[in-house]
Design goal:
The chain has a three-stranded antiparallel sheet, with no helix packed on it. The chain is built from no helices and six strands. The chain has one domain.
Length: 89
């Protein structure tokens, strides 16, 4: 897989979503997490998977005075098919 994941979030306020980029920061999309998390949350820590090629991130969040760990897989946002211009001869 070729690419990187950039995640930005407000570390001060409670929120309902995070913003991410899979094209080196050229564009950002919003990922709403309220369907998985019942209320707004505050991100305490963000960690990536140990494998540099992995597409998972882990969030430690505070939600209604409870701490939770959330795993997000960004793998589906990458184009996994090789194209002819991906090859070098």
């Amino acid at each position: 897989m070729n690419g990187s994941i950039i995640v930005i979030y407000n570390e001060i306020d409670y929120m309902n979503s995070i913003k991410y980029s899979v094209d080196y920061g050229n564009s950002f999309r919003e990922l709403n997490l309220t369907d998985k998390i019942s209320s707004s949350f505050k991100i305490i820590n963000l960690e990536k998977d140990i494998d540099d090629r992995a597409t998972h991130i882990f969030l430690l969040i505070k939600d209604n005075k409870k701490y939770k760990i959330v795993s997000i897989d960004f793998g589906e946002f990458f184009d996994n098919e090789c194209k002819e211009d991906d090859m070098e001869f």
